[in-house]
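Design request, C-alpha cells follow.
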C-alpha cells in the first residue's frame, strides 16, 4: 500500500488520504488559472511551468499565513500575469475595449476571496478568475 494511504478495514482496499484545505485551494487555483490560459490559447508548456512555480511559492506563503488560503487563486493569477509580462507581454488582454492601446485586465481584489478580472479603463468586471473563456468566447489574447 502506498505511504499516506489507509486501508478500509471492511474491504481491505486502500481508502484515499484526505486532501488538506491548503492543497484543495492550491489545486483549485492551478485549475482556474490554467483554464484562463487555455481560453487565451497561451497554455504552452513553459507557461504552465510558470503556474507550477507560483503554486509552489504560494504553498510556502500559505504555510506562513494559513488565513490567506482563500486568497490563493487571485495571487496565483497575479503571479502568472506578472511572469508573463516579464517574458512575453500583457495577459490577458482586455476584450471589452475595442479601441485604443491594448491593455491587460487586472485581478481584483488584489488580496481577497472571489478574485475576478476587471478592466479599469471601462470600469467593468469581465469574468471570475477561471471563467475568461465564457466571458470572451475563448479568446483573451491576440
Amino acid at each position: 500500500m502506498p505511504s499516506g494511504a489507509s486501508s478500509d478495514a471492511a474491504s481491505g482496499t486502500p481508502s484515499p488520504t484526505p486532501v488538506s484545505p491548503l492543497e484543495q485551494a492550491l489545486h483549485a487555483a492551478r485549475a482556474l488559472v490554467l483554464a484562463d490560459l487555455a481560453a487565451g490559447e497561451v497554455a504552452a508548456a513553459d507557461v504552465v511551468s510558470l503556474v507550477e512555480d507560483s503554486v509552489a511559492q504560494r504553498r510556502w506563503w500559505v504555510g506562513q499565513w494559513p488565513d490567506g488560503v482563500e486568497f490563493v487563486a487571485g495571487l496565483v493569477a497575479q503571479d502568472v500575469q506578472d511572469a508573463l509580462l516579464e517574458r512575453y507581454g500583457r495577459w490577458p488582454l482586455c476584450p471589452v475595449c475595442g479601441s485604443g492601446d491594448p491593455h491587460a485586465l487586472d485581478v481584483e481584489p488584489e488580496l481577497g476571496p472571489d478574485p475576478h478580472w476587471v478592466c479599469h479603463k471601462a470600469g467593468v468586471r469581465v469574468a471570475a478568475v477561471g471563467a475568461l473563456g465564457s466571458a470572451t468566447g475563448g479568446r483573451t489574447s491576440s
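Comment from the thread starter after seeing the answer: thanks! DSSP finds four helices and five strands in the chain.
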